[in-house]
Amino acid sequence: MSAPIVIAGAGIGGLAAALSLARAGKRALVLERAPRIEEIGAGLQIAPNAGRILAKLGLEPALAAVALEPEAINIRRGRDGAVLARLDLCDASSRWGAPFRLFHRADLQGALLQAALDNPHTHVRSGARVGDFEASARGVRIRVHTQEGVEEIEAAGLVGADGVRSSVRAHLVPSESDSPAYSGCVAWRATLPAEKVSTALRALESNLWLLPGAHVVHYPLRDASLINAVVIIEEPPEAENAASSLSLKGEELASRFTPSHVAAELRELIEAGDSWRHWPLFARPALRQWTRGPVTLLGDAAHPMVPFLAQGAAQAIEDADALGEAFMRLGATVETAFAAYEGVRLDRAERVVRASRRQGAYFHLSGLPAAARNLAIRALGGPGMLKRNAWLYRDPLRR
């Protein structure tokens, strides 16, 4: 039996990559360092560009059972809640081939994991950390650390899908200048029972509130019994060193905002959170090469991005699709297919990284620049705002 392609990391990108490789007829072995494969965090927005790929992988029935489809995105002025634009999402499927969907992150990862466990071409192991590796005559020799000790695995190739602090990337790019760097923003995350939120904020819609130096996103999950909320604030560099488990009560988080800057209903939503979890946002320098021979990177390991376009998971899913398509299209060696995958994805992913950073700066304007931004959003309206981001949702391989 041929050696598998090993994927480091059983997150959304890693599992999607395994399924995409299996669709191309390749064996995939997913190694997850955690003793149990379970997702932390709460909500996740999946745009049509990723939804089309998940459907192609045969996941449509499983995902439809656990997703919510928002009717719209409301962009709101933070100080008074005025809706600057309402982006109607009801025709997303006809326009872009898939709907916008809202997931509890654990539900999406669970569906991907179950599909991988059910697929004869994929195998998933937890409690197995990819250590160092080296190219070999067969592909790549990987040292894997488990509770029982260190074992060596001969693989046809290695895909680092192990997140922003990727150990695979650290071996490929052993430079301090490539280390993760604090972005200047912290996300405070909470999941609230819907009954704790005002009726006006429980609709099947996503809401984006624009504030000076901050923004807030919230939307319903599962059967709309939960509200996922994220408060993103510019915080000084010392926030980088704060423990990721740090949490605040809602009243403490709300007190960080000047009362006149925050609408009453938004303040009430923040105060309703019993525990807001501290999540510093990190970035890494752009790479002009993800692949070296039989080793490549995927998702946050290749192109970590701030979440201001809600495209982090979607871009990892696009990576996974391009990886499988490279094998299907070329029927080539691992090295050739990996290089082709990188060629398809590198510029597109970096464009999304840059656009995400710009979006954050745009969201966080204050004073006269913020007033001008709000006028521009009103002038564009919902259709114009959707058109502005249509390049994200269209099939990137279509011209």
- Spatial ordering of strands, largest sheet: 5-4-13-14-15-12-17-16
**Major sheet characteristics:** 8 strands, mixed
> Rough shape?
globular
The number of strands is 18
In oligomeric terms, what are we looking at? Answer: single chain
User: What is the end-to-end distance?
Assistant: 40 Å
Overall SS class:
alpha/beta
Radius of gyration: 21 Å
- Distinct helical segment count: 12
- Please tell me the overall pLDDT: 93
**Proportion of strand residues:** 25-35%
Uncertain segments are: none
N-to-C series of helices and strands: EHEEHHEEHEHEEEEEHEEEEEHHEEHHHH
* Fraction in helix: 25-40%
Give descriptors for this structure:
35% helix; eight-stranded mixed beta sheet; five-stranded parallel beta sheet; alpha/beta; 399 residues
What does this structure look like?
Helix content is 35%, strand content 27%. Helix 1 runs parallel beside helix 5 and helix 2 (48-56) packs across helix 9. The chain has helices at 12-23, 48-56, 60-64, 92-96, 105-118, 167-172, 250-254, 264-271, 312-330, 334-363, 367-388, 390-393, and strands spanning 5-8, 28-32, 43-46, 72-77, 83-88, 101-104, 122-126, 129-135, 140-146, 149-155, 157-160, 181-193, 205-211, 214-221, 226-234, 247-248, 276-283, 295-297. A hairpin with a 2-residue loop joins strand 9 and strand 10 (149-155). The mean pLDDT is 93. By secondary structure, the chain is α/β, with parallel strands linked by helices. It is globular, with a radius of gyration of 21 Å. It has an eight-stranded mixed beta sheet with strand order 5-4-13-14-15-12-17-16.
